[in-house]
Design a protein that fits this description.
316 residues; alpha+beta; four-stranded antiparallel sheet; two-stranded parallel sheet; globular
């Protein structure tokens, strides 16, 4: 493989994008590593209103969240990748309890990070004098803002990335590097128009305004992030079945109505998990939890958290 001294920036950029596709990513875009100036007032306003709920960590590293050059020394480019995850099989309708589709398969962070590390190793081959660092919802990075900045989509009213013709069932990953690359143009336009399906569908009004989530009212936040004590009855009064996450706003989005199943071998649904009956959920033991959710993102809420969520709905 030729090194960076033999290749121009455009060629290296195209090689990286081609490699990203070979690794299974569904899209790849690149932006200059610089401060997200337009994001600063949005983030500050969101925090000032307390919309981060119990996610106190969102107020930490404020400057680093906006500026990748503070997060990764000598960074020049932000490589953004997307990984589509709409499942080929849905959860048993008779289960009585639901988990978010993103948790059907292996822990997405480990899947994406391993692929990003392979992409970084490829960069080492073609540009050995440069450094990189991979991220997947694991550090103070404004992932959705970067996805828009590299032209992959826009932010929907449900606050998630909307990809034209594909919808919002995507994981986002980043590789920040000291390598200077060709940059893509930001996405222009609004894919939502006058549509309010997601806003109207949210049973607790967690979408405070288009693109802004009040985590204090969000079922996903309450069932995943709220780990201490009792979850808020004000939220769960409107929750009839979700025990880990929530897909209500995504399922209501017209862009997702014709979602095609993903074809990623390393993120196939755990069929044992999807087949659990209501009784099996309610009698779940810690040993069984560890067996079923060994490689799942559900393990983040721990057995005690998941059991708390189940018990709360069961006793309503």
């Amino acid at each position: 493989m030729s090194n960076s001294s033999d290749l121009d920036i455009n060629t290296i950029t195209q090689l990286i994008k081609t490699k990203a596709k070979e690794l299974g990513f569904d899209a790849c875009g690149i932006a200059k590593a610089e401060k997200l100036t337009e994001e600063e007032p949005r983030l500050k306003n969101w925090l000032d209103k307390g919309f981060n709920g119990g996610m106190d960590y969102m107020a930490n590293n404020f400057d680093k969240r906006l500026d990748p050059t503070l997060l990764v020394e000598e960074s020049k480019s932000v490589i953004v990748v997307l990984f589509y995850y709409y499942p080929p099989v849905l959860q048993n309708e008779a289960s009585g309890y639901k988990i978010s589709k993103y948790a059907y398969g292996r822990d997405y962070q480990s899947v994406i990070r391993s692929k990003l590390n392979l992409l970084g190793e490829y960069i080492n081959e073609i540009a050995p004098d440069h450094t990189w660092r991979a991220f997947s919802d694991s550090a103070p990075v404004r992932e959705k803002a970067w996805a828009v900045k590299v032209g992959l989509g826009s932010i929907g009213k449900h606050s998630l990335l909307l990809v034209p013709g594909k919808g919002s069932f995507f994981f986002i990953g980043e590789l920040i590097t000291s390598l200077e690359l060709e940059h893509d143009l930001p996405f222009k336009g609004n894919l939502c128009g006058a549509c309010r399906h997601c806003i109207n569908a949210c049973p607790n009004g967690a979408i405070a305004e288009p693109g802004v989530i009040d985590a204090r009212k969000c079922i996903a936040h309450q069932t995943i992030e709220s780990r201490e004590g009792q979850i808020s009855e004000g939220v769960t009064d409107f929750n009839k079945e979700w025990i880990f996450g929530c897909d209500i706003c995504q399922d209501a989005c017209p862009w997702n109505k014709k979602s095609e199943p993903h074809t990623h071998d390393d993120f196939q649904p755990n069929l044992e998990l999807l087949a659990l009956t209501k009784d099996e959920w309610e009698t779940l033991t810690e040993e069984r939890f560890n067996e079923i959710f060994k490689d799942s993102g559900v393990k983040r809420t721990k057995f005690s958290g998941l059991k708390r969520n189940i018990d709360f709905l069961k006793n309503k």
